[in-house]
Amino acid sequence: TEVSHERLQMESRLRRALELGELELFYQPIVHTDSGNLCAVEALLRWNNPAMGMVMPDRFIPLAEETGLIIPIGEWVLQEACSAAMEWKDITGRDIGISVNVSPRQFRDPNFTNAVMRALDQSGLDAEQLELEITERLILDNSIETAEILRQLDKEGIRLSVDDFGTGFSALSYLKSYPFDTLKIDKSFVQDVMKEPEDASLVRAIINMAHSLGLRVIAEGVEDEPQTHFLKAEGCDFSQGYFYSRPLPAADFEAWLKTNERVQI
Ligand code: C2E
Ligand code: MG
Ligand code: MG
């Protein structure tokens, strides 16, 4: 009962989080592995609750999915992320892509494609600058609707990536039937790339497989320099992780954009 009481309390707090302005996006750069130059940015959701402090997404996204609250929250994330990308374009004078995580539950909402298109229209962002990150879990649910929605988004020019690649136990055949552009190698493989030969082999194999399928690859969770040398040598297109920058609140990220020499290239 204690657990369910806590859950109920969290649920009622989450219900009000949007209207109370408690949600916030943090931003983390995605860079070209070769040069370290900025390519795109991933939006990562945070919940600032007066009673609970800063709540990380792994703690409240599952609840948001179960309760359906992920639908309005997800729409807010899309709008906020697309407008942020337009602001960065004003600041830097160049296009910077924005990656937004979407839950399987959002895909089951018949309104999802509309919500995405609305976020693009209202912000003025080009569809090509938006990438939606989808976990392998979504693909596992393998419904006809999922395939259809992915095709619609692809037709609009929106990029699609497989997040946490390698953790989902799914049949790889979806990679040829769905219109994905990018694979994000899960950070659990990247983390031990210099310590565990098996992880190095897996990362190498994923990069080669992705490239032979015409997909781009992003390594997540890059934390130190030796990892960047390995990824460079293996031809990994893009990298993301604490080595380059932690996820930052909007104001700090803007300051980073203005001062970092890896941006104006
Ligand atoms: P993800 O999309 O795989 O995001 C990457 C996670 O790795 C983020 O955790 C990020 O802060 C963390 N990270 C980045 N660089 C490093 C590194 O070098 N080392 C380590 N150890 N970790 C690193 P975060 O922000 O806690 O997000 C966790 C997950 O929550 C995300 O995983 C994503 O699946 C989900 N999520 C975040 N924002 C949203 C959202 O707006 N909507 C939905 N549906 N899910 C979201
Ligand atoms: Mg992600
Ligand atoms: Mg990931």
Word description of this protein:
The model has no long low-confidence stretch (mean pLDDT 94). It is built from twelve helices and ten strands. It is globular and about 50 Å long. β6, α8 (174-177) and β7 (182-185) form a beta-alpha-beta unit. The chain starts with a helix and ends in a 6-residue tail after the last helix. With 265 residues, the chain is an alpha/beta fold. An eight-stranded mixed β-barrel has the order 1-2-4-5-6-7-8-9. 35% of the residues are buried. 48% of the residues lie in helices and 21% in strands. The longest helix is centred in the N-terminal third of the chain and has 23 residues, at 70-92. Ligand C2E binds at residues 28, 44-45, 56-58, 61, 77, 101-103, 133, 163-164, 187, 220-223, 241-242, 247.
Strand tally is 10
The side-by-side strand order for the widest beta sheet comes to 1-2-4-5-6-7-8-9
Structural class: alpha/beta
H/E element order: HEEEHHEHHEHHEHEHHEHEEH
From the N-terminal CA to the C-terminal CA, the straight-line distance is 56 Å
Shape label: globular
As a percent range, the share of helical residues equals 40-55%
Biggest β-sheet description: 8 strands, mixed, barrel
Strand proportion, as a percent range, falls in 15-25%
Question: Poorly predicted ranges (pLDDT <50, ≥5 residues)?
Answer: none
User: Cα-atom Rg, whole angstroms?
Assistant: 18 Å
Mean pLDDT metric: 94
Q: Count of DSSP helices?
A: 12
What ligands does this structure carry? ligand C2E, magnesium ion
